[in-house]
Amino acid sequence: MATVPVYRWRLAPDGYATRRQLRAVGLRPGGQDVAAQLERPRRRREPLVAYLYRVDRAKPVRPMTPAKWAALAKANVARRICPECRRDAGYVIPPSLGMCTPCAFPEEQRAA
After folding, report:
1. How many Å apart are CA 89 and CA 91, to the nearest integer?
2. How many CA atoms lie within 13 A of 6 on its CB side?
3. Rounded to an integer, what distance in angstroms lies between the CA atom of residue 52 and that of residue 36?
4. What secondary structure letter does DSSP report for 60?
């Protein structure tokens, strides 16, 4: 098993980037393995690790198709529907509640 080079935080050579850095310039790793990693030391804890990919091997981001846009819109609408009352809440239902605010906190409990 081959090991990857490890660099200290902010000391990686040019030509490497994280997923977020690749995405910011319209690229994706494109199936390549992790080429290196950054480690940021922390006191009394294990270091933070960031994985790096080679920029020259990165591929362009695939464009969104009309079907993908439609699926994304449908998923976002589903996040607004309350599973209890089946109404559009007008906002994304918080996962912590699992239902809209009126269903989670009915009027009779608020009055007490």
Report:
1. 5
2. 8
3. 5
4. E
DSSP secondary structure string for all residues of 5-43? PEEETT-PPTTEE-HHHHHHTTEE-TTPPP-EEEEEEET
**Residue that has been written with the tokens 């906190």 in this structure:** 105
CA dist 76 and 12 (Å) reads 38
Amino acid at residue number 73: A
Q: If you search the block for the tokens 């080079």, which residue do you land on?
A: 5
Q: What is the pLDDT along the chain (112 residues), one digit of tens a residue?
A: 468 999 999 999 999 999 999 999 999 999 999 999 999 999 999 999 999 999 999 999 999 999 999 999 999 999 999 999 999 999 999 999 999 999 988 875 555 5
The two tokens of residue 84 are: 């209890």
